[in-house]
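Re-running the complex after MR caught last week's input typo. The corrected sequence lines follow. Everything else is unchanged.
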Amino acid sequence: MLLRRQLSLAIRRPIEIGNPLVFFAIVVALFPLGIGPASEQLAMIAPGAIWIIALLSSLLTSDSVFRSDFDDGSLEQLLLAPQPLYLSVLAYLCAHWVVTGLLLALVSPVFALMLNLPAEAVGTLMVSLALGTAVLSLVGGIGAALTVGLKRGGMLISLLILPLYIPVLIFGTAAVQAAVSGAPVGPFLALLGAMLSLAIALGPLATAAGLRISIDA
Amino acid sequence: MTDSAVGESLAEVKDLGLARGGRVLFESLSFAIRAGELWQLEGGNGAGKTSLLRILAGLSRYGFDGLVSRAEVPLYVGHQAAVKGLFSARENLSWHVSGGCVFADEQIEQALQRVGLCGFEDTPSHALSAGQHRRVNLARLFLSEARLWLLDEPFTAIDAAGVSELQERIGGHVARGGAVVVTSHQPLHVDHTVHHLSLDGARIS
Amino acid sequence: MSSRIGAAQKGLYNLTVMWTFFHKLGSPPWLYGIAGAIVRWLLPLTILALLVGAAWGLLFTSPDFRQGNSYRIIYIHVPSAVVALAGYYVMAIAGAVSLIWRMKMADVAMKAAAPVGAALTFIALFTGALWGKPTWGTWWEWDARITSMLILLFLYLGVVALYEAFDNKEAAGRACAILSLVGMVNIPIIYKSVDWWYSLHQPASIKFSGESAIDSSMLYPLLLMIGAFYALFTCCLLMNMRAELLQRESRTAWVRRLVKPDGPR
Amino acid sequence: MYFDSVQAALSMDGHGSFVWVAYFVTLLIISAVLLLPGLRRRRLLRQVATELARQESGYATREGPR
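Corrected-run output:
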């Protein structure tokens, strides 16, 4: 029920969904300008580039997950809700993932072609992005919960959470590079899946505790 | 409205002490809120009324010493209206974050009428005035199942008719065995014994 | 030589035993006094151990046959790295204790551990870079261990920055406790993934002498330095805690009595 | 003593500069980390002392600066 509320809230304001996608498109366009149009160079850095941009866009949007509810007081009501906070936070983060991560994964083939990533790697890219952005949203939620009470939390959240994003980035890029070079992709995706299960189990717990502290401050 | 045995305590506080910025607001404060009681918290600005209410509600769990226990999750109406600008009044209430159960449509309609918002059910909330936002929030009084109500300055930005309507609702709730803790500067005209807890001298009467 | 390592380790050991034994009492004045007592004898011991270890490692051992004398940096690089990592765990555990049992003293310990750990991590990074120059010819080498050290430094800076960002210091302490716990869970994952990533890109790179590989004449000074660094960390932690206690309890009676023995009751 | 002369110890056949710079910087940081808390403690104690003195002579109100 809460998930429906979050999704309707997000859909109610389409521009909010568009922002990460536009951000993604612009930054992807920057890369060829920065590195030069030669296609083999682009192909070489394409997996890493796409993953880093996905990571940054997830980070930028995760700050506002709780902020709007915190400002108008409905976050306090959330703490008093009869259902456990773990589920409510999970609903919040799933809504955030669907709106940013999933869409990114669906749209990524377009950007992959722009960076002329070999076609057979696009499938792996989408799957790894879908899995990876879920982990990013869950971990980003922890940072958002801790900094929601602060006025100038935006920059701080990146310092807190980026080190925790590194394993996801490493294995996500490795999965796509393996796909490019034709190596088996299974193990990398399995690792991403393992990280996802860990993030699902522990992420919302830390986020819930973080919310209780930010509300109390 | 489940009727509870009168005298069953809904919230217990044992030697509660709170200091803010080095100043001790109150200490070793003990009292119990029983069903069928109406409490009014008094005290100047900054005397810690809101903090005490938040501690009672369980929003603040750190930063004070002493024990607070409560029978069930209370209904907390704070300064902020907890109303999303994007949603209409009806959506705000039907999907309300703390409302576990989903209310039938006519229940919401009836609640909005009681708060004087009939005709505004479907206008997006950002078109409503601040007073109307608070009325949407206060409409939850007519919907909530919680027996313990914690109302923080409920009468601000509400016109005379609304205030009397709310006081009558509070009286009804207390009569049916609920308990209400109100922080307000206006005296309560309710035909019910009002327990006063003044935080200035931490006196209980 | 090894008796001094034993002393430092024993000091640390009975400190932890006392700590868990007394943690019920956890009252500031007691902690202030006991920390002072420990620092009084641990500080000279640490300085002595550091000097002896450095002199021994620098001047008395023979150079490594492959890298010549530049390997002598190992005597500060490896100990600071090891203790920096241990420091993060100390901070995370102190955070957990302050969260679960609501103990103010653990919160003070966490706040005190963060800057010391960050300084040690920086030493490890700086000496690692300096060591990289003669052996690999580049100032910054994306070696697995040095990259993990860099990430550890970011984790430390994250905790310190979060603490400064909060106005209400108690909430800051709890938020940092959560962040350090999340960090603690992630450290093994980060270390493994960086090691794996490193082996993916440069499988054949030479691995400079790991602890076990070096022969005994170089090993002893290293163990001494590790013990000395542990003692150094404990010393700084206790001194920082004393200062932190004074800051938080500056208005209480025991601090007043401390300043003026016949101060007002 | 492995090195036969002080000069050899300084040069360490080419690597000396790196080794000594590393040790010097480490010494710098360690002494900073060791000294800072002590100074801070003394400053805090002095602060409390001055505040006490001022209170006794009755200038500041009961609150006094923190």
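None of the earlier attempt is carried over here. The longest strand of chain B covers residues 9-20. The CA atoms of residues 115 and 135 of chain B lie 6 Å apart.
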